[in-house]
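It is worth pausing here to work through a concrete case rather than discussing structure prediction in the abstract. The textbook approach is simple: state the sequence, then state the predicted structure, then interpret. We follow exactly that order.
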Amino acid sequence: MSIVSPRYGLNHMVCPSLTIQQLIETAHQLGVETVEFRNDIGTNSLTDFATAKAAGEQAKSLGITVLSINALYPFNIWNSDRAAQAVEMAKVAQACGAVGLVMCPLNDGSYTEATPQRFDMLKEALLAITPILEDHNLIGFIEPLGFPISSLRTKREAVEAIEAIGQSSRFKLVHDTFHHRGAGEDDYFPDHTGLVHISGLEDQDVSFDDMLDSHRLLVGPKDRLGNVEQLQQLHTTGFNGPVSFEPFSEQVWGLNDPATAVLDSIRYLNGALNR
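Step two, the predicted structure:
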């Protein structure tokens, strides 16, 4: 049996109350490889060039890779406001030396799987974003959201759009274990995957159709999402990229020692993956 040894990292959602500097320091303390910054967590959001440059320099000095700024939303509803947002985010991402931008689709029920024009809208947005990413040497990390109200629920549809416009090197998938289970998706696309987000679900009273971001914990032995199985399958099919902790639950955010909680989750995953 080959040893599964994920390349762990921290999304700022692991503890939004940390400053950007503290997030980087925590990542270094834990010995993880990557961090993801966000633009949606209030005062600790990364939105300005000076802070971005300082954060990039700090991360680089500690041997940590800045994976992304999360997120361009809703990336698949393209208009002049979205174009301006994309350019500004790309500039900030470039300033901190990020690999790319995480891009999330509209998630309000306006465009669902029954809406025929969704796919054309998706391709239009990707074509428009491509030159912005190229100008700033960034990857677009597309994150399908598995909620029933999502306008882009499956990775398969994202892959079909990427291939339709011929941009497999510019766009990569985010395989989010929560959204993979929520969408009921069985397919894995290791060659198209650039990043994995992990979180756990333990609540026995919530269905996979009804689960929300607020249910997302760190991954432990009571996990119902099958994080271990998903990571094993990704490893088996050839993915060896970054795996980023992304819990959204206030239960996690309120911990006195989030670093130790993440370390416990790493130890659990490593043990379970290699049984």
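Step three, interpretation. The two ends are 9 Å apart (CA to CA). The chain has a mean pLDDT of 96.
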